[in-house]
Fold this protein.
Amino acid sequence: MNRILLFIDSLGAGGAQRQLTGLACLLKEKGYSVKVATYYDHPFYKYLLDENQIEYECFRVNSKLCLPKLVECIKRFKADVVISFQTDPNALACIAAKICGTKLIVSERNTHQGITWKDRIIFQLYRLADYVVPNSYSEKNFIEKYFPHLKSKTQTIPNFVDLKRFSPTDRKEYNQGLLILSVASVKASKNTKNFIKAYHEAFMRGCRAKVIWYGVNPKQNDLAINYAYANECQAMIKELGIEDFFKLMPKRQDIENAYREADIFCLPSHFEGTPNVICEAMASGLPVMASNVCDNPHFVKSEENGWLFDQNNVPEMADVIVNATGGNWDLQAMGKRSRKFAEDLCSEDIFINRYLNLIKAL
């Protein structure tokens, strides 16, 4: 099992794409022959493959026309194992691996809040996979409850974080002008509008911490609905008169520097798997404010390394913002606990060793 093909929709600026490219690099370090294949040409993370001299192929077709290309790619690369990430690539990989007689690990990146007809089809296709790997314990519980036939082949592998790239600054000084950082796509599922409302309430109560949210995508690389939502958020910030304190910014590749510039991290989303950005923030030594959903309480312990809140309760979110920025908290000590949690839960070694155990068991 020495030749491994990793398959995903694109190398765009998403959490699943970051994890897959990282997995490719770690497998290459362990001596495996590795190739990455996608069908959309969004090369945000391609530089990581280039730096590690990992072969990459983009089919440049939509998902409906991808299957023959994927089958051809598996055969040409002579893959022993295919590892796929995300729902549509997983479905394609199930069929392609069956045609090619190749071992398959599918990584389920969703955190399901219900079941659709498409979900039922996808999880039936997962019967063709050798392992199903959710990246959150909440998703594992969902799979075992609604699709018990997959229980024996389902194993959780939480996301990893690069503990060298994401590390605390040597010295951080705190003052009245605290900076709250958020890193997430500006879209409804990430709850940007409610967070803007909550910050405005906190602002009216005297909070003068600033917020920078990195996550605005260029229009050509984003869904139209998300682009419209981002515009609505910008308009809301202006209407509330907080544009000098709350900034929505484009995504950036050197995001590790943004963490080092911040004092507190916040992720107010409605649902998460293993949130990459919370792990990165913890590794960077930041206290974390987060919605009390899915696996977030696994990483954020209230008043130990951060604060949890009901993401639908704007006054409660405002209370947490005021408390976190104006309370008598030792933010440096909380940040150190965050770093320790990241080392214990999200290291590269834990991540790659769990994947290696699955590969060796095939």
Remarks:
- The first helix runs from residue 15 to 29.
- The radius of gyration is 21 Å.
- The CA atoms of residues 1 and 359 lie 7 Å apart.
